[in-house]
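INTERNAL AUDIT FORM
Audit reference: QA-55
Scope: verify that the stored structure record matches its stored sequence.
Auditor: D.O.
Record contents follow.
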Amino acid sequence: MRQGPVFLALLFLTSFFSGCLSFDDDESKTIRLATTTSMRDSGLLDLLIDDFQKTSPYTVEYVAVGTGAALVLGENKDVDALIVHAPEQELEFVENGFGYDSSAIAWNRFVLLAPTGHNSSIFDAFESIYEHESCFISRGDFSGTHHKEQSIWRSLNQTNDVPMVEDADGYHPEGDWYYSIGQGMGAAINMADEKSCSTLSDRGTALNFAQQTSLQRTDFSDEILFNPYSFIFVSDMERQGAEAFLHFLLNDGQQRIEDYTINDEPAFFTVDSID
């Protein structure tokens, strides 16, 4: 187990963010965005930004990190807006005055990638992984995906009395079969494939990696796996450009989201299809 994954991630981001983002003299024409690795790794984000910039005077510069790290960038006012997917953490962010006007822009579901498929619920699948001590790869980076994984373990503890621990890697079962790596979704999928392990993934990244791994994807209908992506304005930061980008995402961008497929499968769904 590692120590202090969020601290290490943010230490890396300090140099990465300042080194990779460059701004025009007229900074009001640049929208600074912190977003999730899943939005980037799915391939959708760059297409949305390209579409937006073709008809807008604004440019979008972004850094893709786990939701936990993105929220910290928002707290520090290093960005103008966020696209994240961890509702409980987003609510706390807004309630603490760091952001406002959270708007859903798309959704999908989390999926399980594993050496073999599962036919039951996500809870039964996780309990089976625990009981058989099957190798499991956790992102361990306090991203939206990691928060969702922890909520599944927490539910199993409450309903089936499956023992858990809580430490610097979050809330999880003990055992040398459980790997917390403190990295993004792509790294977790690659490691799961190499070691014949299971991992929880967002749907978009799982589809994007489908032809690169031998892992099988299982889609469950459990309500807990609902995965909304939200756009949040950061308090006291550039509003006009961020408003323009959100307006695009909720209008013309919805058609791009609806049409976007990976291997002929939809990666995300539009907000008007949320039940």
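Auditor finding: record pair retrieved intact. The radius of gyration is 18 Å.
Action required: none
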